[in-house]
Design a protein that fits this description.
Helices cover about 40% and strands about 20% of the residues. The longest helix is centred in the C-terminal third of the chain and has 26 residues. The mean pLDDT is about 85. Helix 4 links the parallel strand 4 and strand 5. The protein has two domains: about 110 residues, Rossmann fold, CATH 3.40.50.620; about 170 residues, Rossmann fold, CATH 3.40.50. It is elongated, with a radius of gyration of 21 Å. It is an alpha/beta fold.
């Protein structure tokens, strides 16, 4: 499945070896897509303007060298070398990145996640702004000791949506995740959480006279209904290839972070803004809870009708 055609890789020009750059080149090759580099960096003070041209060119040269080395290592001859690179110096890097996406109509943004001081989970402010406001799918890459073609990929979806736009997003998530998995191990893990929201309330209040067997039967109905909807959504997506379905009992923000650790997931594909990514998924609520409790790479997709507040 050829999902991407116009990929943008972003960095600050000061990083050493970039795992995200390796992913960008590999995905561009797999999708026969265009790939461009964008460096966002601070401006030099006015007292150092004589060095501006050298400063900018040195950053461009460093990224171009990294791109060429990775391209040679991966053996990707179908793309021209060097890849085109642009640079933007100044404040507000998130705004600069998003405006570049708008100008060039990119369909995927790949960026290494901002480094944390230690093994702290979650993402820093710049990355969270991109997750909330970038109009195209965004891949925030976290370092992994694994080879790029050995990463475990998962997608989190909610099949219980009824709105056509929400169903459309859920299907696109599956298709996007399939494309990502094709660039790694080839196996896609599909995770979805189901929960009878009244179960705990009814089971643990002795004054509510409902027999356990009646409640158990209702819980089983909820599970079965959710699983059938999940399988129907996967069928509608028409994705092929190796896939494993994980049907978890509980809420997404409770279950998914632990499941990611248990299954050694390296890349999680999710939706934001609409509910289709995960039940109740809204940036600032369930999605943000998950973003800040995982230590894997994220690939995040927004619905077709999403309009970025940054133009």
């Amino acid at each position: 499945m050829k999902e991407f055609k116009n990929i943008l890789f972003v960095n600050h020009g000061l990083e050493g070896k970039s795992h995200g750059l390796t992913q960008a080149i590999q995905i561009a090759e797999n999708n026969q897509a265009d790939l461009k580099g964008l460096i966002v960096c601070p401006s030099l003070p006015t007292s150092m303007l004589d060095y501006e041209a050298t400063y900018e060119q040195s950053l461009i040269d460093a990224l171009a060298t990294n791109m060429s080395e990775i391209q040679t290592k991966l053996g990707t001859p179908s793309h021209p070398s060097p890849y085109p690179i642009s640079i933007e110096c100044g404040s507000y890097p998130a705004i600069r990145i998003i405006r570049s996406v708008h100008r060039h109509h990119n369909d995927l943004l790949i960026k290494d996640a901002e480094p944390q001081d230690d093994d702290t989970k979650g993402f820093k402010a710049l990355d969270m702004k991109l997750l909330r406001k970038c109009p195209c799918p965004i891949w925030l890459n976290k370092k992994s000791s694994k080879a790029a073609n050995a990463l475990n990929v998962a997608v989190a979806i909610d099949p219980s949506v009824s709105d056509p736009a929400e169903q459309g997003l859920a299907i696109r998530l599956l298709q996007l995740a399939r494309s990502v998995a094709d660039s790694t191990t080839g196996t896609l893990h599909i995770v979805s959480c189901w929960d009878f929201h009244l179960e705990s309330y009814l089971r643990h209040h002795s004054w509510i006279q409902i027999e356990d067997k009646v409640l158990d039967a209702q819980v089983e109905i909820e599970k079965k209904t959710h699983r059938e909807a999940l399988e129907g959504l996967i069928e509608k997506s028409a994705i092929k290839g190796d896939q494993v379905v994980h049907h978890l009992h509980g809420t997404p923000d409770d279950e998914i972070p632990n499941w990611i650790l248990e299954k050694d997931i390296d890349v999680l594909v999710m939706g934001t803004v609409a509910r289709s990514g995960i039940q109740g998924l809204l940036v600032g609520n369930t999605a943000e809870n998950i973003f800040q409790t995982v230590n894997c790479s994220l690939v995040v997709l927004k619905p077709d009708n999403f309009v970025s507040p940054i133009q």
